[in-house]
Amino acid sequence: MYGMVNLAIQEFISQRFGDPVWQDIKKRAAPDISHFLTMEQYPDDVTVGMVNVAAEITGEKLPSLLDAIGEFWVEFALRSGYGELLRIIGTTLPETLSNLDNMHTRVGLSFPDLKPPSFWCTEVTDHSLILHYQSEREGLGQMVPGTVRGLAAMLNTTASVQQIADREDGADHNRYLVTFGTEREG
Amino acid sequence: MNYSPNSAQFALIHPFHMVMDNRMLLQQAGPAIPKLVPGLQIGSPLTDFFQISRPRISPTLEAVEELQGSAFLLRCVENGVILKGQMLVDESRRLIFFVGSLVMDDRLELVKYGLTLSDFPIHDSSMDQVIFRQQRLINKKLEDLVHERTSELAAEQAKSDSLLHAMLPAGIVERLKLGETLIADKFTSATVLFADLVGFTPLTMELAATEIIELLEGLFSHFDSLIAKYGVEKIRTIGDNYMVASGVPVPRPDHAQALAHMALDMSEYIHSRPVYRDKRVDFRIGINSGPLIAGVIGDKKYQYDLWGDTVNTASRMESSGTAGKIQITRATYELIKEEFACEPRGKVTVKGKGELETWYLAGVNPRHRMSTATP
User: Fold this and answer.
1) Distance between CA atoms of residues A139 and A6, nearest Å
2) Are A53 and A99 within one domain?
3) pTM to 2 decimal places
4) Hey, are the CB atoms on A110 and B116 less than 8 Å from each other?
5) Which of A73, B5, B111, B209 is deepest in the core (most CB within 10 A)?
6) Which residues from A are below 8 Å from B115, CB to CB?
7) Quick check: A88 and B133 CB within 8 A?
């Protein structure tokens, strides 16, 4: 995983639970790393370990923690230099979700070690769609609902996300029913 | 097979295309063009919306025909956005066909024109340039951060350097930095001076602690100024004891003379001072010369220190000395007797040394002063 993801998790934990809690988590999950570097590769275990230790220390449920991290991720990327890119993915939530895969593929070209997930949409209507998610990684599907809500917030709208198929239950890939609201005023 | 996409597919693949007739009137435009030019009207002259900025030709079918092999830049009249592409002339139908893409200038704000990823052909590389541009901005931010941290580091380094230089001789600091852990240099001839406040212990009972500090601070900071004046090395102060060496860490032939001059200056300063809070303040000063070892050992609380019998004897010269006097050994006497006036004290019993012949340093030799004054 690129350091940028770990940095987002670091900032999320520090903001929500305070810096001392983050220091505790880091001591246990990444004792040998002094600073995460945005463009540096780190083992996936570090990322997964940080979230697991965070759940253990704070008493939060792992899925809800991942969900919140997903939502934070969008906001973090927006102000970490990817604002322009994120804002041109689409002007509506369905357009944005449909273009996510295109965006990840292109970003992947400049990050040779990136293993981006794939997203695609089917059954798109004015107020709902089915979002498909396929990743090489295990256990990060819980981030998807938060990420979708984060993207909705970026577009000044709201969304609710309900998982309808799970790879862990034998499905080929995860599927989510996304329903989205009308655009909020300004 | 002679496959070609239908016009809907063509528009999808080339959202930034346009078709003009033989009078350069716009006949067709790809779906992204109206986003760039909101007032676009089919049937109007191309030049109402776009100016051909490269190549430099007049906007006619004939001119375009001659330059079909060139790269064309079309500049949007309304907002300056540039399309780069190529022109083809259909000779039989007398039509010009333009296919191009957006030039991703650093200042181009796609959001402003409502352009999204969906407006760009997936196969071309304009979007990759946007990502590249983002990457560059992020790298720039990181570079700035590195630059900032580097100067912070340099400032901190300068701070710790100046601290080190205040504690250790310059040459020694450099050697420690280069990784030497044990510095013990042998000097065949150097001079050591000890000065001690006479009656310090009773004084501490009569004066408040802050007054004692004030008294020592006044004296020692003047001694420190003499250190710089004579280019000698302050070794340390312990309580009321002041220790100086000359000829270390850089050897010099006049090491004994330098310290003799300094001792006389110290003495003169002490005696010129008014009594402190009606207490008489006086010093015993002792000097010795000879071989010694100087350096830094250990890796905590670095201190430049001296070792050897020469140092011990110098200390004895102070402890067995007399208030207000500078007692020197034969070794020092032999080195300075030409230039300085010394009074023999006779034999003094020195702990661990037996009887030693010593002198009191009284002043600069008047004859020598004369001789140096008239070359």
Assistant:
1) 16
2) no
3) 0.63
4) no
5) A73
6) 88
7) no
A122 and A43 in one domain?
A: no
Contact B137 A81 (CB under 8 A): yes
| Candidates B316, B325, B330, B337; catalytic one | B316
Residue A74 lies in a domain: no
Task: Report yes or no: B191 and B245 within 8 Å, Cβ to Cβ.
Answer: yes
Q: Considering its fold, how many domains does chain A have in total?
A: 2
Residues A50 and A132 occupy one common structural domain: no
The domain spanning residue A129 has which CATH number?
Answer: 3.90.1520.10
| Beta pairing, strands B72-76 & B183-197 | unpaired
Considering only alpha carbons, which residue of chain A is nearest residue B107? A84
B117–A103 CB contact, under 8 Å: yes
**Looking at the domain assignment, is residue A36 inside a domain?**
yes
Task: Give domain status of residue A27, yes or no.
Answer: yes
Q: What are phi and psi of B3, to 5 degrees?
A: -75, 140
Find the catalytic residue in B330, B337, B351, B367. Answer: B351
Per residue in A1-48, pLDDT (tens digit) is 888 899 999 999 999 999 999 999 999 998 888 888 888 889 988 999
Range of the domain at A55: 3-60
Q: At A127, which amino acid appears?
A: H
CB B263 within 8 A of CB B279: no
Q: Which two tokens stand for residue A159?
A: 């969304």
* Residue B141 a catalytic site member: no
Looking at the structure, do residues A51 and A98 belong to the same domain, yes or no? no
DSSP string, B87-98: EEEETTTTEEEE
Q: What ipTM was reported for this prediction?
A: 0.74
Residues A120, A160 share a domain? yes
